[in-house]
Amino acid sequence: MNTEKVDVLVIGAGPAGTVAASIVNKAGFKVKIVEKQKFPRFVIGESLLPRCMEALTDAGFVEAVEAKGFQKKFGAKFVKNGVICDYFFSDQFTDGWNWTWQVPRSEFDKTLADTCESMGIPVHYETTVTDIKFNGSDSITTVEDIDGNQTQIEARFIIDGSGYGRVIPKLFNLDKPSGLPQRKALFTHTVDVKRNLFEEPNRITIVVHKPGVWVWIIPFSSGVTSLGFVGDPDFFAGYEGADDEAKLRSLIAAEPYLSERFKDVEFVFEPRILQAWSSTTNTFHGEGFVLTGNVTEFLDPIFSSGVTLATVSSQNAAKLVVRKLNGEDIDWETEYTEKVMQGVDVFRSYVNAWYEGTLDTIFFSGTFVPEIKNQICSVLAGYVWDQQNPYVKNHDTAIKKLARIIKLGEQINSPV
Ligand code: FAD
């Protein structure tokens, strides 16, 4: 069996893996990425948040992504029964990026991986991690290529950015169930020929279809638009349709906000289903490894937090790995896990508030104080580490309190 030696082995060439690899490589360490699939490959997660631009900048990716001409995204629009709540990132409370992109992930992720290669980082595609043995913080990882050839990679540290593959949690039994209820998505890409008659493409639109069921509309610069329904698995079970395409078409027909624009549109691919995506692990680090991106904790797609949490966790992890390889002692729990969980926990409060209907009360009340709206806008832009923002600092209580005040105001103002 061939043997190779690197300082850092990165598992996965998604946003998490590539951001981490680039930052460690820039610090002068020898890095290699192993990636199970051949790129470009499909993965869901197409609407980015402004906060991820800081991680992409740190990794040196922004110029290459900009050159691809992806659709720029300046905000988010929420719609319920024809009532619209618009957020523009330019109005947000936190200083930072006020735009980002909406991307077909196959092209976006390939751009990041190609940029890594152009920096001199080898990316081995169609190469799957099958085994890892740790000896202290040193490790020997066995990988297998598409022809069944095995190689052993000796590394001083491993960064696991394997996303839904969850390599280290699975190999070492670290996975634990997420506390969130299981949800399901049915989605496709559409040839959005009527787009200009309906709305500008420069933001994500989220449509509240029924309590607990919502739709994403994510236009790309190519004229194709990503469209997906998310909800309780029982909701889909109750829908008519011989196959997933028929089911999605009847769902579109049943939602007034979508029916005219997406009626009879061409689907770019047969609708796909994803479900039970929420997951977490007992630990985000161990001697010789750190988990980043989706391998840590992924909650729910509602606020497009996935790629932002993936890139920001990797940005932090990579800097800690560099310090560790330079001989520093790292308190991983304080410097890594707690920071990642700060962001995850803010999003968790908003995800729960969304499915409980608390955010509906706030978003569609029509009595939204601009200062508060700007603070919530920063959360939606991914600035979930800004402790100056009361809607970050008191994430668990602030939105509930606000919804109560709005409801009270509605009661007081309602005719007797
Ligand atoms: P990934 O992008 O999954 O990359 C991991 C890579 O590791 C893959 O390429 C995989 O092939 C590779 N790998 C796996 N196993 C192995 C192995 N054994 N050996 C080698 N390589 C391996 N996020 C957003 O930001 N915006 C959205 O709009 C959004 N919408 C979503 C909608 C749905 C329905 C769902 C379920 C998720 C959504 N997400 C969204 C979340 C998003 O998909 C993820 O958070 C994001 O892709 C995580 O990036 P990552 O780099 O951690 O993992």
Structural features, described:
The protein is an alpha/beta fold and 416 residues long. It has three domains: 3-71 and 97-178 and 278-344, FAD/NAD(P)-binding domain (3-Layer(bba) Sandwich), CATH 3.50.50; 183-276, D-Amino Acid Oxidase, Chain A, domain 2, CATH 3.30.9.100; 359-410, no CATH class. 37% of the residues lie in helices and 25% in strands. It has 15 helices and 19 strands. Strands 1, 2, 7, 8, 9, 10, 18 and 19 form an eight-stranded mixed β-sheet that branches. Strands 5-4-13-14-15-12-16 form a seven-stranded mixed β-sheet, sandwiched between helices. A hairpin with a 2-residue loop joins β18 and β19. α1 (15-26) packs parallel to α10. The site of flavin-adenine dinucleotide (FAD) has 37 residues, from α1, β8 and α10.
How would you describe this structure in keywords?
37% helix, 416 residues, seven-stranded mixed β-sheet, 15 helices, binds flavin-adenine dinucleotide, eight-stranded mixed β-sheet, FAD/NAD(P)-binding domain, D-Amino Acid Oxidase, Chain A, domain 2, alpha/beta
Spell out the blueprint of helices and strands.
Blueprint: E1 2-11, H1 15-26, E2 31-34, H2 52-58, H3 62-66, E3 71-73, E4 75-80, E5 83-88, E6 100-102, H4 105-118, E7 123-124, E8 127-135, E9 138-145, E10 150-160, H5 167-171, E11 175-176, E12 184-191, H6 195-198, E13 204-210, E14 213-219, E15 224-231, H7 233-237, H8 244-254, H9 256-262, E16 272-275, E17 280-281, E18 285-286, E19 289-291, H10 306-325, H11 332-356, H12 358-363, H13 370-380, H14 390-393, H15 395-413
Helix pairs in contact: 1-4, 1-10, 2-10, 10-11, 11-15
